[in-house]
Every structure is written in C-alpha cells, then in structure tokens.
Design a protein that fits this description.
Length: 404
C-alpha cells in the first residue's frame, strides 16, 4: 500500500472523492492534440487544437482553443524554458553543496507558466509573485548570472546579494515575497496605480494553491472588483501546498471558481501556447475596463516544496516520473515543434549546448564573485539620506556614515 492509498483510506468519502479527482487530473496524459502545418508569411507554423486546455467560470466565451506559433517563437520559448530548467538544476546542486544558504524554492516543472504568460504581456505590465520566484525573475529581465549570484549572496546579484531566493527584483517586477499570500493585495495596489495613471497595462499577481485560502486574497478580490482594477490574479496550482494535496486542504479545489463576482479560467499550465492564449484573453479583458480576472494554472513541481523537503513523503516517485513522461512542458513542446517540422533534433541539441554554457558561466561567476562588505548593512535604510548622515550600529558607540 503506497502513501496515496493510505491517504485515501484515511479520508472521509467526500475528501476521498476529491483527492481521487486531483490524482486523476495530475496523472492523466496530455490530451491528444491535432497538429498541422501551414505556410505563413514568416515560414512554417505550428498550430493545433487544444479543446481541453480551458475551463470557464462566469464567461460565455473564452480564449481560442486553436493555438499556434511560428518557428522563431517556438525556438525562443523552448530556449527560455530550458534556461529556467537548467538554472534550477544548478541552484539545486549549489544548495546541496552549501553554496546557497537559507530558503530555496525551485520552479522546475512550471516553466510553461512564466514563459507562456510573458509571451502575451506588454513590456510595461507589472508582476508580483510568491517565493517560488526564480523563473519569473529571469522572464522579467534578470540574467541567469544575476539570479545565481543573488542566490549565493554575491554583490553582482540582482539585489546585491541582500535578498536571496525569495527577494529578487527588476523593472516592473515587484519581486518574490516570503509571506504567504501577502503579495496578492500588493498586486492589486500596483494595478490601482496603473489605472490611476491612465496606463493601458495590467498587474499580474501570482500565488500558489496553498495561499489560495488566505483571507487577504479575498480582500484583494473585493477591492479589485469594486474599483474594476486591471489585475490578473493567477493561482499557480502545482498540486501541493507544502506537503498537502490541494484536494485535502481546500473545500473547493477549483481555484478559478473561487469568486462569485470575478470571472475565471482554468488553464492547462503545461501547454505553453494555451497559457499564452489564455493570458492574452485575460489581459484584453482587464485593459478594456471590465475589471479583474482569475486564472488557475494547473501545473506541477518536480522538486519538493523547498530544498528541505525531499518531496516524496506525500507523493510517490512514480507519480513524479509519470508527469515527467506524459506532461512535461519542455519535452512535449519540443516534440510538437519536431512533428510540425519547424525544427530538427540537431537544432534542439545545439540550443541545449548553448544553454548549458550559459548556466556553467553563470554558476562559475556566482561561486567566485565577492560578497558585499559588512558596512553595506548600513546602506539603503533611508531613500534620501542627507550629507554626512550616520546610522547607529548595534551599540551606542558604533556609527557609520552612509551615502546611499
């Protein structure tokens, strides 16, 4: 009897049914996709129907189930997902070697969400997320070197080594946030700023299925709807909140239906083109003055909740391997591109070699770059310190002059 079976027998009938539905959804293979080739202005195009990619709530019409991309887009998406996958593998190894300390939450398996969503976003759109932030940090403009150097606490990290895994920032990226669910009302505030300034942009506020039951999430829903804020609330549902299945922790595990006054979309978060189309639909909805939208991205994480979690005490290794074989966002997308004859195996091998070199160079830099001087503890306390301003240390005799 495996762990899953043991859990099933312990649950009451209703909880048992919900967990079986969740397990069935996670373990099911990718829906059969109809792929065809056609000649477009830019060359061959991958296009297919994804009839099971969406579920709608309070919407008469949703995103197009016919999705497509050209060769240039396809190779770009593939490369970005591979960069994130390999970057997280590097972070995993460096953490185990004690080169990375503290908390570290990896994004492996969820790459189609950040790459697909960013493919439909405007460069001036804003985004805020939770602590599983490495993939989003890369997509919002930070280099692999900037991310890995931040993880190892080096001065060339994107936050000068001050933030670590949970606190990375970039233009229009309001960072990863360590307090569960606290970033959601902040995202509503950023969306309010867009509306106040008359900008045709949205703020994407991401949270996990474990944070979906936080009261502040529903408070943010209420204010966003009252003021018709251009905010896309995105639940990245990877199946587990820490070590608990979402079916066991949530009375209603359909997170896109969580609000009776805000429309929602369930999206197959392992299909990068479906993610992109759903995001394009949600963005157009929000920027047209209709108010917020909720999206649930059904995805999966390959590692544990954090590096301190082996990730196998509440799920089986077979479950993880089954998802890797049948629903992996990178390999399935590569197979579609090859089937559509947009690229060859050799081209993907060359991309993989290029990505490997990027990661190796960044990893070397992150291990050998210098750390911040201890005096930097006194900087960035005040936004505009006056000349010759000093800050007291931890006793009454230490004072340091600061310049920033």
């Amino acid at each position: 009897m495996n762990n899953y079976t043991k859990i099933i027998f312990r649950l009451q009938p209703n909880g048992r049914r919900l967990l079986q539905q969740q397990h069935k959804q996670i373990s099911s293979p990718v829906p059969l996709l109809v792929t065809s080739i056609r000649e477009a202005s830019g060359g061959a195009t991958l296009e297919y129907d994804a009839p099971n990619a969406y579920k709608l709530h309070m919407l008469e019409q949703g995103p197009s189930t016919h999705v497509s991309c050209n060769r240039e887009e396809g190779l770009d998406y593939y490369k970005k997902m591979q960069v994130i996958r390999r970057m997280e593998a590097s972070a995993n190894n460096m953490y185990k070697s004690k080169l990375i300390r503290g908390f570290c939450h990896l994004y492996s398996g969820q790459e189609a969400v950040c790459v697909g969503m960013k493919g439909a976003m405007d460069k001036n759109d804003s985004l805020i997320t939770a602590y599983r932030a490495h993939g989003w940090t890369y997509m919002m403009g930070v280099s692999v070197t900037g991310i890995l150097a931040e993880l190892t606490g080096r001065k060339t990290g994107c936050a000068e080594g001050r933030g670590g895994s949970m606190h990375m920032y970039a233009p229009n990226f309001y960072g990863g946030n360590g307090i569960v669910g606290a970033q959601v009302p902040l995202g509503a505030g950023v969306a309010f700023a867009h509306k106040y300034r008359g900008e045709s942009n949205v703020c994407v506020a991401l949270y996990g299925d474990g944070a979906a039951n936080q009261g502040q999430v529903f408070e943010a829903y209420n204010m966003a709807k009252l003021w018709l804020l251009p905010c896309i609330f995105v639940c990245e549902n990877n199946g587990y909140g820490m070590g608990t299945s979402s079916a066991r922790a949530s009375a209603n595990p359909n997170f896109y239906k969580r609000c009776e006054y805000i429309p929602g979309i369930w999206v197959d978060g392992m299909d990068i083109l479906a993610v992109r189309e759903a995001t394009r639909f949600a963005r157009e909805w929000c920027t047209s003055g209709k108010g917020p939208m909720i999206m649930e991205m059904a995805t999966y994480r390959y590692f544990g909740h954090s590096m301190s979690d082996p990730g196998t005490s509440y799920r089986t290794r077979e479950e993880i391997q089954d998802v890797r074989k049948s629903r992996d966002p990178i390999t399935s997308f590569r197979e579609k591109l090859i089937q559509a004859k947009l690229a060859t195996e050799d081209e993907f091998k060359n991309i993989d070699i290029e990505v490997k070199k990027i990661i190796e160079d960044a990893e070397s830099h992150a291990q050998n770059d210098s750390e911040l001087h201890v005096d930097e503890l006194y900087s960035n306390v005040y936004s505009q310190p006056p000349p010759n301003f000093k800050i007291r240390g931890c006793d009454n005799f230490t004072f340091k002059e600061i310049s920033k």
